[in-house]
C-alpha cells in the first residue's frame, strides 16, 4: 500500500516523535508533552496518512 503524504512528510514528523519519545525516556521532556506532539503529528500529516492508507486498503485487489 502507498500513501503519498507518508512518503513525502513522514520522515520529518517521525523525527519529532522519536525525539520527544527519547526525551521522555531520558527524563528531559515531561510525559505531558506526548499528547501535544501526537496532536501536531495528526494535524500536520497523520490524519491524511491514515485516510490514504484506508483508501488504499479499500481499493486493493484481492
Task: Please characterize this protein's 3D structure.
The chain is 79% helix and 0% strand. The protein is built from 2 helices and no strands. It has helices spanning 4-26, 33-58. The mean pLDDT is 91.
Summarize the SSE layout with pairings:
Layout (H helix, E strand, L loop, with lengths): L3 H23 L6 H26 L4
Helix pairs in contact: 1-2
How large a portion of the residues is in β-strands, by DSSP E?
under 5%
Overall mean pLDDT stands at 91
Q: Look at the helices and sheets and give the structural class.
A: mainly alpha
Sheet having the most strands = none
Number of helices: 2
Radius of gyration: 14 Å
Low-pLDDT windows of residues: none
Run of helices and strands: HH
The beta-strand count equals: 0
Estimate percent helicity: over 70%
Straight-line N-to-C gap? 13 Å
Spatial shape:
elongated
Quick description:
The chain has helices spanning 4-26, 33-58.
Search tags:
mainly alpha; 2 helices; elongated
Amino acid at each position: 500500500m502507498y500513501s503519498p503524504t507518508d512518503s513525502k512528510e513522514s520522515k520529518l514528523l517521525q523525527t519529532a516523535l522519536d525525539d520527544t519519545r527519547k526525551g521522555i525516556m531520558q527524563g528531559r521532556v515531561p510525559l505531558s508533552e506526548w499528547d501535544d506532539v501526537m496532536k501536531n503529528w495528526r494535524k500536520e500529516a497523520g490524519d491524511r496518512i491514515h485516510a490514504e492508507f484506508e483508501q488504499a486498503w479499500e481499493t486493493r485487489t484481492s
